[in-house]
Amino acid sequence: MPAFPPHAPPRKNNRAIVRLSGVTKRFGTKTAVDSLDLTITEKCTFGLIGPNGAGKTTTFALIAGFVRPTNGAVEVMGQEPHRVSALRGRLGVLPQDALLPPHETVEEFLTWMALLQGIAEDDAHRTVHASLESIGGLSWKRVRCSALSHGMAKRVQIAQALLGNPALVLLDEPTAGLDPRSAYEIRELLRARKAHSTIILSSHNIHEIEDLCDSAAILDQGRLASVGEIQSLTGASEQIIVTLNPGPAPIEHVNSINGVDRVEWQPEALRLTVFFSPRDHINVEFIMAEVMQVLLQHHARLREISAGSGLERAVVGPPTAPNKATTLRQR
After folding, report:
1. Would strands 260-266 and 168-172 be described as parallel, antiparallel, or unpaired?
2. CATH classification code of 235-329
3. Residue (of 42, 138, 126, 135) closest to 91 by Cα position
4. Buried (b) or exposed (e) across 121-144, using 16+ Cβ within 10 A?
5. Domain boundaries in the chain?
6. Are 165 and 197 in contact (CB under 8 A)?
7. Cα(141)–Cα(160) distance, rounded to whole angstroms?
8. Out of 61, 67, 133, 214, which residue is the most buried by the measure of CB atoms under 10 Å away?
9. Which residues contact 322 (CB under 8 A, 6 or more apart)?
10. 16-231: which CATH number, 3.30.70.3400, 3.40.50.300, 3.40.50.2300, 3.40.50.720?
11. 3-state SS of 242-288?
């Protein structure tokens, strides 16, 4: 794993909705989560990411109350997560390998789940209707779960997690195994949901986390490698990446732009990384506009420009055999 920036503090003015304090979870001799300290604030979409075996699924299970820590404490909305009665109706969960009852209709399944969430019988029908409407699945309510496509079933599972408008929703790999269109539709559904609930999303899909989440925690071998807002983790607030087509590369002219601290040029990849320190009017939009203007003035052929190096680089690190780079600093 790469070196990470210092752990960022939780967002100001938002209260903690989930807190893990010194949490360790062992399964026999295997330590899945090791001395984990993590605070997640309300009114955000938060990602759990990391390679296989990083501890994402175990951390998710600890927050959901599926397992209890070996050491340390887990707190969800002021409660221990295994206290089901205290969190009923306030917490919605979609485990990764959730299955639907094959012989029940969608409406029967969701109504039963609504009752288990503590929703009154008189309100269950209205709640199920609203949840199905939110996923575009009203026409499926009398369809048996066994007859649903994979994408339809995933939507129904998400509808179950959203029953009753819970304050906290936990989703483990919500788009795993879906075709691109279905995955896109699920992401749009979650994006629309962000204003209503705190969402904790565990996923192998780094680009999905980067697209949907405000903040994320990167786990590695059960430990917290880094945590912070997505812009901080990707460097989007302090660097831009420019890829050129073959031709002129006016590196020195880019390096002379007001506010640029240094530039790094990788000739084999035709990639230019521009570093800056945000202040006053010096921000990513200003630097990006200035860089594009300089490139155009000097007839450079721009292929791509983006803010930050992306979350993938933060998780997996730089290539093992990086291109030779030239670094220029402001004089």
Report:
1. unpaired
2. 3.30.70.100
3. 42
4. eeebeebbeebbebbebeebbeeb
5. 16-231, 235-329
6. yes
7. 13
8. 61
9. 266
10. 3.40.50.300
11. EEECCCCCCHHHHHCCCCEEEEEEECCCCEEEEEECCECCECHHHHH
- Long-range contacts formed by 125-129: CB under 8 A, 24+ apart: 127/163, 127/164, 128/163
pLDDT tens for the chain, residues 1 to 331? 444 333 444 444 578 999 999 999 999 999 999 999 999 999 899 999 988 889 999 999 999 999 999 999 999 999 999 988 889 889 999 998 889 999 999 999 999 999 998 899 889 999 999 989 988 899 999 999 999 998 899 999 999 999 988 999 999 999 888 888 888 888 998 998 888 899 999 988 888 898 899 999 999 999 999 898 888 887 777 888 999 999 999 999 999 999 999 999 999 999 999 999 888 888 889 999 999 999 999 999 999 998 876 676 666 665 544 456 677 676 5
> What is the torsion angle, in degrees rounded to the nearest 10, for the CA atoms of residue 194, residue 146, residue 105 and residue 183?
20
In the chain, the largest separation of any two C-alpha atoms, in whole Å, equals 72
Residue 36 pairs in a beta bridge with 23
What does 130-149 look like in DSSP terms, one character per residue? HHHHHTT-GGGTTSBGGGS-
In sequence order, what are the beta bridge partners of 112? none
Question: Is residue 107 within a helix (H) or strand (E), and if so which, with residue range?
Answer: helix 106-116
Contact present, 263 and 254 (Cβ < 8 Å): yes
